[in-house]
Each structure stands twice: as C-alpha cells, then as structure tokens.
C-alpha cells in the first residue's frame, strides 16, 4: 500500500514538472521562470493545499535533484575564469557581502531577532547559480562579456558559502567536513589519472569511446554513480555532499575535455528532465506557509537584506567593466538564492539554533528572489533589445 501511495505522489510531482514548462511555452510573456511554477505547483499538490503528495514521498529523489543542481552548477563553472578579471571581481564582491552580512546580522542578533548568527549571515551571501542556469541560458544572458561575469559571480556565491557551511556548520563535525573535502581531492586525482589512462589507448580507451552513446552510456552512468555515492556516504543529505557535488561538477568538466558538450547535454537531459524539477516541487511542498503568514515582515526584511547584502556590491565592484544596466542585472542575479537557504535552515532547525519563523522567512525570501529577480533581469535585457 505504501508503494502505491508513493507512486501516486510521484505522478502528481511529475505532472507539475511537465505542466510548468508547458505553461511557460504557451504564455511566453509570463514574467516568471519555470522554477517558480514548480515551487507553486509543489505548494498546490502538497499537504498544505490539495494533499496529493507529501515531501517524504519523494525525498530520496529530491536529494538526488539537489545534488544535480550543484553538480550542473559546478560543471558550468570554468576555473579559468578565476584567473581573469571576472573571477577576481567576483571574489571581491563576495568578500564585501561577507563584511556587510556580519555587520547587519550582528545588529539583528543584538536586537534579539536572530539566534543563529552564522547560518543567517552565510545565507545572505549565497547565489543560486544552479537555479538560475536554465533561465540565463534560455534568455541568452550567458553569452559574451556579461555571461563571463555572471558565471564567475554565481560560482563564487555558490561555492564559497557552501565551503564555509561545510567547515563550520556541518551537521556531523569539522573533521568529517575536512575528510569529505579530502575525498573530493582524491577523486579529482583519480579522474585525472583515469583520463590519462584512457587517452593512452588500449582496450579501456576503446570501450569508453564506443560506450559513450546508445545503450551503454558509460560516462553518464559513471557520473550518476559518482553523484549517488556522494549522497550515500552521509547518513542524510548534508552540506558535505552538496559541496562534493559542486566540486565533482568542476572536476568532471575538466575530465571530459573535448567531449564536455556531449556529456553536458546528457546531464542536462537527466538532471533538468527529471531530478531537478522533483527537487523544486519538493521544496514547494516543504514550504512552511503558516510560519510565513505569521511573520510576513521577517520575510520582507530578509528579502531586502538579500538584495542589499549580496546584490548591491556589484554596482560598485563592476564599475568600469559593465554598463549600468549590466551591473543592475548582475545585482539581481547574484541576489537570487534558494537551494543553499533550504539546506541552511534545515541545519539550523535540526541543531536548534535557528528560530522556526526565521527559517520559514529565509526560505520564503529565497522563493521571492527566484520569482522576482531573474524576471527583472530578463526584462531589463528585453527593454534594451527593443530599443
């Protein structure tokens, strides 16, 4: 009977994941990305509205989906960007955000509005690059000079907060977090060695070359094994695995080399076609609407802080290299946050350091950034093109 319930719940979740892009396609002037429709659909089919599905029914698939969000984000980031002006400015902008976050959250903590100082401060420095990728790709914002700066800013805003969280807020202990980082480093070395072995020819090279397509799909299966293994090594899906997924994506991009576009298209198909939509529908089902309704001003406060702390430094840091319109777009893109906020609030609630109303307000503010900021950035681009 339980299996039937889970299958019925999965049908509801997959129906939402199908309808979201259909609605966006039928209503091209709809000023929201499909991620927002996935979240809204999760709320509708979830226990707080229709009750057709519950977060627990699809949690395992959602965990894999969250892993894919970070894997694909890491795969998109080219480490060579950080040796260029785009990477250096991205690091400066994030450092400014950290300083602002420490000051602002310190004031909120002194006023008694925040109990979990570090999780909230780090949450205000995050960027949802994995969430933004579909929108930025579809609208052509990743091309050219602006695209390089957006990717660098998004990569820094996703990697460095997750790294800090894994080291200082891991739900296990700091030794485990460092061990997970070491494991990813070992993985990187093994992948480089394997790549050289394949390139040198022989039977293995032939098997891999012939098995990348059609029924074998060796590289895709290997990537899925890597991602699931990262999730399996923790008792639950902790930030250690999130960090590992992001870094694994960076390593895989380097490992794939010339076949990178081929593997990327397959990862997009599996990730965006199934697992990633399940994660966002799950996030909608998990949203604590009652706590948000009970403290709406906190939601608006955190929304404003995300824009001010994470976004506004871009207006100054990118002067001289981006136009005012592009800097405003960068501000809106970098201030968009959600997946890391979800993980952060789960940690805060689990260890009892975060107030429930703050957890709900942070996630709600993250949802609003996904709803508002990318649409505004795209609208600015459209307005310029129309002129």
TrEMBL record:
- Chief localisation class: membrane
> Tell me, what is one Gene Ontology molecular-function annotation carried by this entry?
antiporter activity
| Sequence ranges assigned to domain Cation/H+ exchanger transmembrane in this UniProt record | 16-376
Q: What Pfam families does the record point to?
A: Na_H_Exchanger (PF00999)
Biological process annotations from GO: proton transmembrane transport
- Gene3D superfamilies tied to this protein: 1.20.1530.20
Topology in membrane: Multi-pass membrane protein
Against InterPro entries, the record matches this protein to: Cation/H_exchanger_TM, Na+/solute_symporter_sf
What parts of the sequence cross the membrane? 6-28, 35-54, 60-79, 91-110, 116-136, 148-169, 175-194, 269-287, 299-318, 330-349, 361-380
Q: Record's family?
A: Belongs to the monovalent cation:proton antiporter 2 (CPA2) transporter (TC 2.A.37) family.
UniProt-recorded name of the protein: Sodium:proton exchanger
Tell me what organism the protein belongs to: Geodermatophilus sabuli
The lineage, from the top, is:
Bacteria, Bacillati, Actinomycetota, Actinomycetes, Geodermatophilales
């Amino acid at each position: 009977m339980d299996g039937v319930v889970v299958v019925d719940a999965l049908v509801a979740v997959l129906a939402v994941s199908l309808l979201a892009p259909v609605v966006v396609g039928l209503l091209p002037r709809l000023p929201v990305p499909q991620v927002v429709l996935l979240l809204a659909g999760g709320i509708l089919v979830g226990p707080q509205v229709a009750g057709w599905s519950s977060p627990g029914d699809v949690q395992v698939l959602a965990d894999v989906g969250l892993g894919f969000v970070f894997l694909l984000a890491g795969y998109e980031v080219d480490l060579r960007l950080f040796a260029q002006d785009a990477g250096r400015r991205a690091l400066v902008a994030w450092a400014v955000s950290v300083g602002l976050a420490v000051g602002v959250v310190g004031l909120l903590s002194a006023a008694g509005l925040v109990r979990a100082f570090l999780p909230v401060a780090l949450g205000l420095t995050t960027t949802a690059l994995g969430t933004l990728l579909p929108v930025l790709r579809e609208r052509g914002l990743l091309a050219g000079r602006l695209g390089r700066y957006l990717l660098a800013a998004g990569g820094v805003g996703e990697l460095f907060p997750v790294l800090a969280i894994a080291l200082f807020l891991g739900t296990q202990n700091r030794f485990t977090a460092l061990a997970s980082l070491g494991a990813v480093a070992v993985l990187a070395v093994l992948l480089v060695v394997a790549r050289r072995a394949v390139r040198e020819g022989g039977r293995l090279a032939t098997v891999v070359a012939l098995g990348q397509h059609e029924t074998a799909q060796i590289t895709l299966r290997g990537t899925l094994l890597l991602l699931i293994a990262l999730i399996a090594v923790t008792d639950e899906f902790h930030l250690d695995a999130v960090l590992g997924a992001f870094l694994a994506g960076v390593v895989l991009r380097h490992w794939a080399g010339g076949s990178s576009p081929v593997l990327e298209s397959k990862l997009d198909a599996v990730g965006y076609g199934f697992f990633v939509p399940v994660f966002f529908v799950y996030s909608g089902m998990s949203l604590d609407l009652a706590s948000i309704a009970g403290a709406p001003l906190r939601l608006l406060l955190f929304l404003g802080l995300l824009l001010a702390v994470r976004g506004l430094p871009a207006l100054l840091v990118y002067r001289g290299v981006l136009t005012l319109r592009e800097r405003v777009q960068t501000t809106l893109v970098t201030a968009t946050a959600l997946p890391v906020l979800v993980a952060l609030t789960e940690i805060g609630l689990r260890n009892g350091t975060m107030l429930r109303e703050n957890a709900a307000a942070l996630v709600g503010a993250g949802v609003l950034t996904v709803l508002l900021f990318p649409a505004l950035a795209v609208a600015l681009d459209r307005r310029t093109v129309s002129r």
